[in-house]
Amino acid sequence: MRNIILSLCAATLTSGTGAACGHNPTRPDSRYVVVDGSDGAEVLDTVSNLIWQRCVVGKTWDAASKQCTGKARNVGWQVAMTLGADAPKPASAGSAWHLPSYMDLLSLLDLACRNPAVNAKWFADPDILFLWSGTSYEKLADYAWGLKYATGDITYDGKNEEFQVRLVRSSR
């Protein structure tokens, strides 16, 4: 995989297996709430006002077990850009589902956490390796930005590579 990694505060991340967070999470549990009518499948970030699908495309939220089930769908960037149109109808008002921008993905990062580098209560999924963003890499047209889920590294990769997608929408 050809990429440049921008390590986001690697010194503050803890190591080990499973989710590990430092003492001062930057994305505390209280930042998120379940969207009414979604049975837990949609989560509102009360700071960014973004609504995230709790599971990556291909998986579904199981309210009884409180986890994502099924198999994640790996897709190239061009396909990823179209997945919002095929997504389930949102549980509440707001915009339509779409591939998150580079900045949207940054809003998920918890710089105190690792494996995953997000709030594991709301977005835990051990199968995620890399999440696509809808933002092309400005210096190479055949590359797009994404998030390495375990480490929180923001990097770019070839648009022909196949990775996971977590859809987002605005609550407004």
Write a compact overview of the structure shown.
With 172 residues, the protein is α+β, with helices and mostly antiparallel strands. The chain contains 4 helices and 11 strands.
Secondary structure elements and their pairing?
Elements lengths: L19 E2 L10 E3 L7 E4 L4 E4 L5 E4 L4 E4 L6 H4 L2 H4 L15 H7 L4 E2 L5 H4 L6 E7 L6 E6 L5 E5 L9 E3 L2
Antiparallel strand pairs: 1-7, 2-3, 3-4, 4-11, 5-6, 8-9, 9-10
Explain what this protein looks like in three dimensions.
Helix content is 11%, strand content 26%. With 172 residues, it is of the alpha+beta class. It has four helices and eleven strands; from the N terminus they run ββββββαααβαββββ. It has a four-stranded antiparallel β-sheet with strand order 2-3-4-11, with no helix packed on it. Strand 5 and strand 6 form a beta hairpin. The N terminus is likely disordered. The longest helix has 7 residues.
Largest sheet: 4 strands, antiparallel
Task: Give the N-terminus to C-terminus distance in angstroms.
Answer: 37 Å
Structural class: alpha+beta
- The oligomeric state of the chains shown is single chain
Sheet with the most strands: spatial strand order = 2-3-4-11
pLDDT averaged over residues: 86
Helix and strand pattern:
EEEEEEHHHEHEEEE
Task: Classify the beta-strand content into a percent band.
Answer: 25-35%
Strand tally is 11
Using only CA atoms, what is the Rg?
15 Å
Which residues form runs of ≥5 with pLDDT under 50? 1-17
Tell me, what's the shape? globular
Main attributes of the structure:
172 residues; alpha+beta; four-stranded antiparallel beta sheet; three-stranded antiparallel beta sheet; 4 helices
